[in-house]
Design brief:
This protein has one domain (about 5-210). Helices cover about 60% and strands about 0% of the residues. The chain has helices at about 10-15, 20-25, 30-70, 85-100, 110-115, 115-120, 130-135, 150-155, 155-170, 180-190, 195-205, 205-210. Helix 4 packs across helix 5 (about 110-115). The longest helix has about 40 residues, at about 30-70. The relative contact order is 0.15.
Length: about 220
C-alpha cells in the first residue's frame, strides 16, 4: 500500500474526533494530508496484527487446557487449587453465565473458548510458579527443544496483552516499537506451536505493510486514547 496515494478525505477528523486526529496532526507538523496518511498506517498495521494475536491467544488457551486436562481432568479450572488469582473465579462464573444465557450446553470446551485472554495470561502469573514447575512448563518449549522458565515465557506477554487491548479499543499504536512486538508474538506462538507460528508468517501482512525506513514520530506527543 502506497501511503502517498491516499486521498485527503475532507472532514475525516469530525468522525474520528478532533482530539484523536490531533495526535496525528501534531506528528505531521500540521500537514493534514500527512496526518491522514499516518492515521491510515496506524489502521492497516493494527489490522495486520490481529492475525498473529488471534493465533497466539488461541494457541495459548488450547495448550494450557490440553496440558492441564491431561494432568487434572477436563474440569481442572474448577479445582480450588487452580484459583490462585481471585479474578479468575469471576471470569469462570461469567463464562458459565454467558453460555447459559445463550442456551448453550456448559461444557469444558465452551468454557475454555469463552474465557478471556486475561484469564490465560493470569495462569502464568507469579502465583502459579509452582504449577508451572509441575505442569504448565509443558505448554511450550524453545526451538531447540529445551524447556522454558515461566519468566522466559511471560517476559513479553504483558506488553503483548496491552497491545492487544489497545487494538481492540482502536487506540493509537504507531508510536510503539511494533516490529519488536510482532517478533515477540511470533516467538511466543512458536514456543507453543511451531506450525502455528509458520502459519502466521505466511498469512500476516505486517512485514509487507511496515515501512522499510521505520516510523519516525515526535516522542513528546502523548497519543489521545
Amino acid at each position: 500500500m502506497e501511503l502517498d496515494e491516499i486521498r485527503p478525505y475532507p472532514g475525516l477528523e469530525e468522525s474520528l474526533s478532533i482530539e484523536r486526529f490531533g495526535t496525528y496532526l501534531t506528528w505531521a507538523s500540521g500537514d493534514r494530508n500527512k496526518a491522514v496518511e499516518l492515521y491510515t498506517l496506524n489502521a492497516v498495521l493494527s489490522e495486520s496484527l490481529y492475525t498473529p494475536l488471534q493465533m497466539l491467544e488461541i494457541a495459548l488457551r488450547n495448550r494450557i487446557h490440553r496440558v492441564m486436562s491431561d494432568a487434572h481432568g477436563d474440569h481442572w479450572f474448577d479445582h480450588p487449587a487452580h484459583h490462585l488469582n481471585p479474578i479468575q473465579i469471576n471470569m469462570i462464573a461469567k463464562a458459565r453465565k454467558d453460555l447459559t444465557e445463550q442456551r448453550k450446553e456448559v461444557i469444558p470446551s465452551r468454557i475454555v473458548a469463552a474465557l478471556t485472554f486475561g484469564f490465560w495470561t493470569a495462569m502464568l502469573g507469579k502465583e502459579y510458579e509452582n504449577l508451572w514447575q509441575i505442569t504448565l512448563k509443558d505448554i511450550a518449549k524453545r526451538e531447540n527443544g529445551k524447556g522454558l522458565r515461566r519468566k522466559d515465557f511471560t517476559r513479553s506477554l504483558g506488553a503483548v496483552r496491552t497491545l492487544r487491548n489497545r487494538l481492540a479499543h482502536h487506540e493509537t499504536v504507531l508510536h510503539w516499537d511494533l516490529p519488536k512486538h510482532y517478533a515477540n508474538i511470533l516467538e511466543l506462538t512458536g514456543w507453543l506451536s511451531p506450525v502455528a507460528a509458520d502459519w502466521c508468517k505466511a498469512t500476516c501482512r505486517f512485514e509487507s505493510l511496515y515501512p522499510e525506513q521505520g516510523v519516525s514520530l515526535p516522542i513528546t506527543v502523548t497519543p489521545h486514547q
